[in-house]
Write a structure and sequence with these properties.
By secondary structure, the chain is mainly alpha-helical. It has a single domain, classed as MetI-like (MetI-like fold, Orthogonal Bundle). Helices cover 77% and strands 0% of the residues. The model has no long low-confidence stretch (mean pLDDT 88). This is Molybdenum transport system permease. Belongs to the binding-protein-dependent transport system permease family. CysTW subfamily.
Amino acid sequence: MVPLDSVDLAAIWLTLKLATLTTVLLLLIGTPIGWWLARTRSKWKGPIGAVVALPLVLPPTVLGFYLLVAMGPHGFIGQLTLSLGLGTLPFTFAGLVVASVFYSLPFVVQPLQNAFEAIGERPLEVAATLRASPADTFFTVVLPLAKPGFVTAAILGFAHTVGEFGVVLMIGGNIPEQTRVVSVQIYDHVEAMEYAQAHWLAGGMLAFSFLVLLALYSSRLKQGWRG
């Protein structure tokens, strides 16, 4: 039996920290995007929806490469952060957060959009007849009805961030206790032929993924029974 060493534990802590922060930001960013996509009839709905869904089909290294260019000293994000005195984001934890938000965005926006669309017009019309403001309607009617969508979005966003490899390696590199997450740590163990340590981390990731999917499908079954 090979216990996890301090480097492995640091990678686990960093991964959980990254996934938690990314999930919070994704819910804050994804909610208005999902609401707009669910409600709008704009001609821009298709193109914007396609942009949001791009990480579903793009190889992670492609997305990571363009984010690396954009966040570099000559990219528009890099020039902005430099002008604000923040330096550049590549190979920093902040850069990992930004890249993770882009990479996991569709896994949060699409469940929210589906939940908003499932509400329909009737509850909104009733709220309007009671003279509820749009803000009141959203917070007192829409959010409670869309709660299952938020649960699904949070679970998928968190789990997808935990499982990242290509994007985080491109943006964060492999800096211990700063950008080295669990997926990269597993890769390092395999490269060094430390299969016992790799088994511990990979097995933990496998168990985590199974429990996430079990919780997700169990919640959907309960919702179906209640319906």
